[in-house]
Write a structure and sequence with these properties.
Length: about 70
């Protein structure tokens, strides 16, 4: 997992942006309140949790790749 931590962080950041977009979209089109509360905020919370967990993992240094 340490090898792919930059990818995991990137996907989680994109997921937060996607969750915000879904929340804005749900509010704009007038989705039912239970749908709006469960969709966007859940995606945001999940991705923030992934970022929080990934914060404690240091990326693996790959001597073969020189990084």
């Amino acid at each position: 997992m340490r090898r792919y931590i930059p990818v995991i962080i990137f996907k989680a950041l994109i997921g937060v942006l996607f969750g915000v977009g879904m929340l804005v979209l749900d509010l704009a089109v007038g989705m039912p309140w239970h749908w709006t509360v469960c969709e966007g905020p859940f995606i945001i919370a999940l991705c923030v949790a992934i970022l929080w967990l990934a914060k404690g993992v240091e990326p693996q240094w790959d001597p073969a790749a020189g990084r």
